[in-house]
């Protein structure tokens, strides 16, 4: 396990790492998740093994610290992720990022292009204020104290089901709520606008069962390769690991 201080007050972002060659491949989880749980089975596949690989848990999640005075905006998470990569002496990484983590990765690539050579975005949030059916909106529908202290967190855990709850219960409730609020607020320019303006290689994975990706034509016109993954919903790495690994490996693999 590796760690680096990210807030000037002693709080640490943590990650696990597998040694290997070539540009580092960095996995970033979604809201209420953890990177190893969602991606270790992918990184171990033969077509992906042998690369230096980092599994980073964002602040408030998994094995990272969860300071009560941290903002947990997308920009805050991206800054903490940059601290981790700087400490690990990573540049030009391939960043594989899911859902909320994809939004963080887009901000990272915009703010620190030296850290990112390729983005693989897995149903990443591109626009503020997602539909009310999204997990982030369900959390953000509560006031912070109601979510943290008056049973909101427990009700959300029951609603999301056992699989997501298994990692969500490892996250700090206050951090979850603030992260969900930050995700709903998005960035200015929006994450979609930032993605269009990036020069790094960009791949966007959309699960077939999730429906068509809004604005896909505009993304493709800007050089983003949009891939619809058959038989998959939001958690593509679980629903179709073969296609997921192939997309991460890239056409040359």
- What proportion strand? 15-25%
What's the arrangement of strands in the largest beta sheet?
Answer: 1-2-4-3-5-6-7-8
Radius of gyration (Å):
17 Å
| Amino-to-carboxy terminus distance | 29 Å
Number of helices: 12
Would you tell me the structural class of the helices and strands? alpha/beta
Order of helices and strands: EEEHEHEHEHHHHHHEHEHH
Dominant shape: globular
Give the overall pLDDT as a whole number: 95
What's the helical proportion of residues? Answer: 40-55%
Question: How many strand segments?
Answer: 8
Low-confidence stretches: none
Main sheet, how many strands, which sense, barrel?
Answer: 8 strands, mixed
Descriptive labels:
alpha/beta, eight-stranded mixed sheet, 20% strand, 40% helix, 253 residues, globular, 8 strands
SSE topology:
Blueprint: E1 2-5, E2 12-18, E3 21-28, H1 35-43, E4 51-57, H2 74-87, E5 93-98, H3 100-111, E6 116-122, H4 135-140, H5 144-149, H6 152-160, H7 162-168, H8 173-185, H9 191-197, E7 201-207, H10 216-221, E8 225-229, H11 236-239, H12 241-249
Parallel strand pairs: 3-4, 3-5, 5-6, 6-7, 7-8
Antiparallel strand pairs: 1-2, 2-4
Helix pairs in contact: 2-3, 3-9, 6-7
Give your account of this protein's structure.
The chain is α/β, with parallel strands linked by helices. It contains 12 helices and 8 strands. It has an 8-stranded mixed sheet with strand order 1-2-4-3-5-6-7-8, with helices on both faces. Helix 3 (100-111) links the parallel strand 5 (93-98) and strand 6. Helix 2 packs across helix 3 (100-111), helix 3 crosses helix 9 (191-197) and helix 6 (152-160) crosses helix 7. It is globular, with a radius of gyration of 17 Å.
